Amino acid sequence: MQRNSIFRRFMASTTILAVALTFLWPAGFAAAYTEVSRTSSKDPVAEGVTLEKINIQTAQGIIKVDVLTVDLTNPYVKVDTMVGKNGILTKNQCVSNMANETGAVAAINGDFFQMKEDAPIGPTIESGELVTSPAQRTDTYAFGLTKDNRPIFPIFSFKGSVTSPGGVQFQLFGINKPTYLAYLPDNNTATDANRLNMYTPTWGPQTRGPLPGLTGMVEMVVVNDYVSEIRIGQPKANIPADGYVLVGHGTAAQFLTTNFKVGDQVQVSYEVTPETGNLQAAVGGLALIVDQGKRHWFTQTISGEKAKTGIGASQDGNTLYLVVVDGGSPSRGMTQGELADFMASYGVWTAVNLDGGGSSTMVARQLGDETVTLVNNPVLGSQRSIPNGLGIFSTAPPGTLAGLKLSGPSRILVGTQKTFTAKGYDEHYNPFAVNPANMTWEVTPDLGTFEGSTFTPVTSGSGKVTATCGNVIQEYPVRVLGSSDIAKLEVLPSTIALDPNESVNISVKVTTKQGEVFNLQPSEYEAKLTEGVGTLNGSIITAGSVMTAGQLTVKIDSTTAIARVTVGGIEQPFYGFETTKPIKYEDYPVGKVPGSFRYTGPNEPAFRGTGAARLEYDFTGTTKTAAAYANFPGGLALPGQPISLGLWVMGDEGNGHWLRAKVIDAAGVEKLLDFSREFDWKGWKRVTADIPADVKLPVRLTDIYLVEAGDAQRDKGVIYFDELSVTNAPAVGETITETPEPEELLAQKDFQPGNPASMKLGENLNLTFSNPADSTAYTIFARQIWSTALPTPGYYPIMPLYNITGIADGDDVEKLPELMKIQIKIKDITGLDKIRVMFWDEEKSAWKQIPCMVDAVKGTVTAKTNLLGVFGLMQDARPRPVYSDTSFNWAKDIISDMAAKRIVNGYPDGRFLPNQGITRGEFVTLLANTLGWAAETTNFKFADEIPSWALGSVAAAVNQGIVKGYDDGTFQPNRVINRAEMAVMLDKALGLANSSKPSNYGDARSIPFWAVQAIRNTKVTGIMLGSGNRFRPKDVANRAEATAVMAKALMYYIQS
After folding, report:
1. How far apart are CA 804 and CA 808, in angstroms?
2. 3-state SS string over 856-897?
3. To 5 degrees, how large is the angle CA 985–CA 986–CA 987?
4. Segments of the chain with pLDDT less than 50
5. What's the total number of domains in the chain?
6. Do 15 and 114 lie in a common domain?
7. Model's pTM, two decimal places?
8. Same domain for 617 and 724
9. 782 and 905 assigned to the same domain
């Protein structure tokens, strides 16, 4: 469909066009393309109707053309217009549906149309009835067929009038017309303003209704030539089945309202010229493109090489030619001039072009078929719904069987089964029903056997399939393909890796030397599975219960393929990217994909432990296939008999890139592995890549890389790699007894308000609970977790982990009302100073350290928390902080231990400043880190600003009543505290029991009254002591002694 703008472009050139129309293009005008070769095929569609499919190879590309040749002198040929759906103009449908609805044996699309209203611009005449009037234009040609089957290609004109009972007349501008640009000598382009138009039931059930920019529209409903209703400015009117609606605007509206009233008789007269009253069919077009067998000067041009539709006739008018040119891939289309030249070269004497582009469509009935099928390849991939088309009909009576059309594969793989079909047609090429029971099938020479119409070839070679029905015989050439024709026989997947008792559906594929692909059914090939590996049932392999390996052998003719089958596999960590093996970045095309590949540094992502690798890429600089390579010079030698690789990858959403790996086997053959075809995730995800079965061991991993071949995904980004693992298979014939995975233990415990409780999970986990008397009943569940996909950056998990959950009053709970003590036994673990208890924070998707204490003598780790969720022991892989100013400090070892746990921190310049006074903000943060407080949101306002690093801890301390602000509304986070203040905060944070025993310090008289009890309590518990029988309450508390005090506080907190 071409919009009305195709008419608009000529409005400014009226004078030039009027002169130019009298000229033709010079004789012998050359086509824009250079033809190299041409192939074509012709088939009858019906008696008098032939379809030729033409492929023109040009220097500029392939052009595909379809031509219907119609003998207008044949008594069984009828040409007519097809209109919409069920004859309704504005109910558009595709050409094939219109053809099948009307019974056409072939058809093409028709007129240009206005897409908003789904109505054609030019004339539409169906079976001698005027459906739409011609456009009021002097530059638009059309096709018409007279009632004596004579084709004409004129510019049709329309004249009409409406007469009132008083004899007043007004010009009828059109019938069933949408809005378009008129093109008349008076330069008035309006088709609705001050115009009078008629709408009949063929238009649709209702009129067009109010029109944009026009007010005061009048619709006069006429039934059996009498006015039944006059509507002014109302919504769409219903069009009566036995009448019509006259629609007017401006002067036309005034004519209707002034000269008519309900009940008046209406007189309407109109005519279409030329051939008034003698037209059987007509559809609108655009330009006269061929006249007297040559390209004609165009009144209008649609520029560019596009899909085209044209219709023309021979010089004697006895033959009609319907032409459709495909546009888009692979056919390049034609220009309007090229279409004209092609049609002229085909023998066309006169022709016009019809709607093209996405509308260009040709359908035709194939021999033996009852309905039409699509002939061309529409630009948009499917047929466009349009308002009209031109159909070719066969009126021949039923005949007798005259021929058979056979269909089936022409190239068949030996051993496969293929079914052939036969459709019959009579002497008029109309379909003739064939009874399959009356058919016989055979093949010569003896290449196989037929059972009914199903052929099973047993020998390769060329031959003919022959179908016979009565006296009608039809042959069909076939080629049976054998081993000499096979390029590749594949079993997919090529490496079949199964868990014990697991099943997989395999597929078998043959690729011939001509590039054909055959996907085979189990009955079409021989297959054998190594004994002891499992069972083979059709295409389903079910593994046995033991870890072993073997092979599946598939045979076609004398060609075999082998797929390795493994049951179970032993996965082992291979490379954690924490050692500095040589790595480098490479790109393709070289120098076109900027990027880098390096090991990560501090504060960069890692999935497990402290190391990972970082690949940065930039695909924006090239439109070619691009790749960013993480290269391992010399390759990483993979151990054992690897069947797959595993890799944790942190994505950046990846824009759908392709993540691959390259390995080189012992024979020097490169194999490309697929980790993911669609790299589209964010965060860490584990991906795997199968290693082909035909690799020669040993195998080296040389590259992990990201690829982009499409134009739409050109971006740049950063991804990370960690935890490369290798899964090794048993040797063929080897059986391995796998160490069973530890039993997944589950424990459950109910505990009531006011009663302490405890529970055990196996021999390694003990939980102790307290439940206040005013609380509710809880049910606690504990379960072991033997594997995890959760990232543990900076840590190595010590399995198992534990999932501790709870229910109260029928709902899941996230925390308990009181602290829970978790005690985990440890065995055969070194580096006890690196052991931490970690909790998975679902909300933050991160691990949180829980206060804990390791008892090397008892072999236990004890932690306290009120949180519920996933817990586990982990080994801290992060390097222990080293400070430049603590070597000679009395608390250096304590500082080192507390810093290793990240409870205390130094300064960015590498100093700890042990003798510097500790501030209120620092000490509150130290308390939060030691006791595992969750950072809380602020529900207070202080007059001074609290540093962001201390804000959550200060909020937690304030909310718990441990600290408060000053009378002036400030918190003073940078104010250095003294030892008395430190004792008070410790006392409140730990909830120490009040001691009645005096502290007996020599400087007790200098202890502020508000700190007396706290200093007693901290002395009795041993958490905070004086020196030389002096407490020094007003001395500044420095960072070293604050750290030492918190180390004791942590031990007391865990043990209490």
Report:
1. 14
2. CCCCEEEEEEEECEEEEEEEECCCCCCCCCCCCCCCHHHHHH
3. 90
4. 1-30
5. 7
6. yes
7. 0.57
8. yes
9. no
